[in-house]
């Protein structure tokens, strides 16, 4: 049953290691004709099945020889690792930590994997994601606690070079090219607020009696001297904006130019001012 399920544990069909293990676990659970959700032991067996699939695809001759208790060929890639076959039908590294006490057997004898197999790449991606995209040495060290990937350090670096999050965290800030100041910033011999920019901010909550009302702020900023003027808006409609601008002009004088974003209140106020301007007589239009 396990061998038949392992044929479907193909990493090319999945985007993450979790999805691969989940799919294999569901298939193992269904093959056993059990009801309910898969237990923890089924997920553990699913992980071993996915790793077994990677070994059978990457080292077919070595896998069959070790399974038959025969020595591997002298030109095998696993020869220097002294591989051995365990009770879970997995190839493990014999290692040099047999006499260490207190270590997990999986750490003493890690599972051998090929770096180019899709299941191995998904495993590297999973470790890299769970460790929050650290340096390659940390990911490689955590992998070594369980698996022995041939040329594992290069495999981790290769994955992190294509990982979007890793590239984002390791990217350097772009240097901005200095450009010329716009003409409104260079009118040095004009009064304050001759050229003005404006924008709204808020809302803020205010207590009026027993009720709570919203208020917004309207910021006027001189583009030359950086002086600021603040007005309060009772709403974000065109009438409130026009009243605030009228108070600003009455206090600071009429600006030659006003700059703003494409807010609905700003555009509505512009429309009303243009309509009022076109309704004036020709003599008043000329004076304005």
From TrEMBL:
Gene3D superfamilies: Ribonuclease H-like superfamily/Ribonuclease H. Residues 118-171 form the Integrase zinc-binding domain. It comes from the Eukaryota. SUPFAM superfamilies: Ribonuclease H-like. Pfam families: Integrase_H2C2. It comes from Cirrhinus molitorella. This is Integrase zinc-binding domain-containing protein. Transmembrane segments: none annotated.
């Amino acid at each position: 049953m396990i061998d038949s399920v392992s044929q479907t544990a193909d990493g090319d069909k999945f985007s993450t290691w979790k999805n691969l293990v989940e799919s294999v676990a569901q298939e193992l659970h269904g093959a056993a004709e059990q009801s309910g959700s898969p237990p923890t032991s089924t997920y553990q067996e699913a992980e071993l099945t996915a790793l077994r699939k990677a070994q059978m695809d990457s080292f077919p001759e070595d896998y069959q020889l070790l399974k038959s208790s025969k020595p591997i060929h002298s030109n095998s890639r696993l020869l220097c690792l002294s591989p051995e076959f365990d009770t879970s039908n997995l190839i493990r590294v014999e290692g040099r930590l047999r006499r260490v006490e207190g270590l997990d057997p999986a750490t003493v004898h890690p599972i051998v994997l090929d770096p180019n197999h899709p299941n191995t790449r998904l495993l590297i991606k999973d470790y890299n994601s769970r460790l929050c995209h650290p340096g390659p040495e940390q990911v490689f060290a955590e992998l070594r606690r369980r698996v022995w990937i041939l040329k594992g350090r290069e495999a981790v670096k290769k994955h992190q070079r294509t990982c979007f999050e890793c590239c984002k965290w390791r990217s350097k800030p772009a240097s901005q090219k200095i450009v010329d100041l716009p003409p409104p910033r260079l009118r040095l011999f004009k009064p304050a607020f001759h050229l003005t920019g404006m924008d709204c901010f808020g809302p803020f909550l205010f207590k009026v009696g027993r009720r709570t009302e919203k208020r917004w702020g309207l910021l006027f900023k001189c583009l030359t001297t950086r002086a600021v003027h603040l007005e309060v808006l009772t709403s974000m409609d065109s009438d409130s904006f026009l009243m605030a601008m009228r108070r600003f002009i009455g206090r600071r004088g009429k600006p030659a130019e006003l700059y703003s974003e494409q807010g609905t209140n700003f555009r509505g106020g512009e429309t009303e001012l243009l309509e009022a301007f076109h309704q004036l007589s020709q003599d008043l239009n000329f004076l304005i």
